[in-house]
Amino acid sequence: MRTGCYKLFCEDEHQFEWWNHNAIKNLKVEFKRFEDVVVLSLMHPWERDARLLKKALKKGPPQYNVIVEIACTRSSDQLLGARIAYHSLFDRSIEEDIVSNIKGSERKLLVALVRAYRYEGPNVKKDTTRSEAKTLFNAIKNVDTRKVMEDDDVVNILSTRSKPHLKEVYTQYMKLSDKTITEELEVELLLKETIECLCTPQTYFTRVFDTALRDDANEGAKKALTRLIVTQEGGEMKEVAAKFEKQIEERVKGAYKDVLVGVLRKEEK
Amino acid sequence: MATIVVPKHFSIQEDAETIRKACEGWGTDEKAIIAVLGHRNAVQRKQIRQAYEDLYQEDLIKRLEKELSGDFERAVYRWILDPADRDAVLANVELRKSSDEHPVLVEIACTRSPEELLCIRRAYHARYKRSLEEEVSDKTKGETRQLLVGLVSAFRYDGEEVNTKLAKSEAEELHEAIKDKKFNHEDVIKILTTRSKMQLQATFNCYREAQGSSISKNLPIDAKEEYVATLHVAIRCLKDSKKYFEKVLRNSLKRFGTDEDAITRVILTRAEKDLKDIKELYQKRNSMPLEEAVDNCTSGDYKDMLLSLLGNEL
To answer: For B120, which residue in chain A has the nearest alpha carbon?
Structure first.
């Protein structure tokens, strides 16, 4: 076997073949990614989300977008399920853990988002969406006095309204400003991601895929690829993934690639 | 413990027929209705509704609404609903009131179990096509809104574990927040809306040990400030819900100015839960049985219904 794998082994002056360290490192990482996909896929979605939430909390601010992603892209009952699983797994509620672990300005927003149990019907009151777009507009204008994500009214709107309602608010906002809400919120990334996940999930998925498949992608970005493909059951992720399929085939290697593409294709059936 | 008395043998089919007969013709045989519905639990009542619909192609609730009236009708209507649906209706009625305070909403959010609260939120979606949190958001503002939305959205851990160190430190946080009426509401809301009930009770105990008196006694009772009033109800419900219900009954059972709404609500919502314990507390506190007070302050079929749910054989 060794004679065929010259990339992995090299001969030294004693004519002893030993592992090429870098090659080994890559192999281990590849298999770890493979393991991650398999383990995540086999878990019950509720347990999966509960564990992802716990890990994100532990890892700190760079991973808070995972909390936003789960709270905002799951259906109401899926999010509820994750909260139930969290109780069983960790003997605390997710709200308690967020409150204990996060002291900064993101806390209010994150607690509110995980608690939501949004109505899922299509009814939308247009008058309310107009006035709420105005509320957001004013909050963004006053960003020098206070961060938008610390504004109680903004947090309220984003955590209690249904997704169809919020999509309409997003549209109404464009009548008030020549930029979209997300364009105005570049400074408050977490809030921007919240609105993307709720109103324009494809934008969020596209960015995550794009970042993960770049040459300089870091570990967190690459893990996001696994997470999105395995945990997103909806059609929106699949549509975005289809655009990136060629890139995935090129950049991702080995067993990890096979299982990832397999999971992607499986859902298409 | 529950107070309703369910007979060992009965037939759902016969129950539906009995109720039908009671509604037929001129007038209504209210006693027959009470005799059946007052002695069936939530699952059985649901089955009776279904059986009635299968037999007579009519919604039993709509029929009863037509036949009955007044406090009795309201009591029967609310009694026959699924507990989660009932609480959703009670929450909605409370929110539609023009007052700024919503003690019934706090009562529901704080005395139901975490799972029950989830069912109530689901029932609210189904009935009113919006989420309970949206409704609360629309009808309240400021710190009261923060507190109420937090209370109704809470999904508290249901376990027995208590972290004593945390209880002590949060008791201190609460003390800091409420002394001098400064009310750092964010801290108070954070504690009251995320901790498990066991943890909160430990916190309230630590507060009492450290301050020498209970936290509810130290809250300034400023009738105008709805945030404080809401806080007060929340703390009392979370600390000792049975004591809270006893007080609601005590305040509502007056010869003049009986609050039928409150009496109906407490008796109906606790009859299958812990009304027996509340009865015992009532007796101790008022030196008379709850049934006697209900007998004195209410009348007619409404009274008979309540007594039935309290466990009396008519």
So the answer is: A117
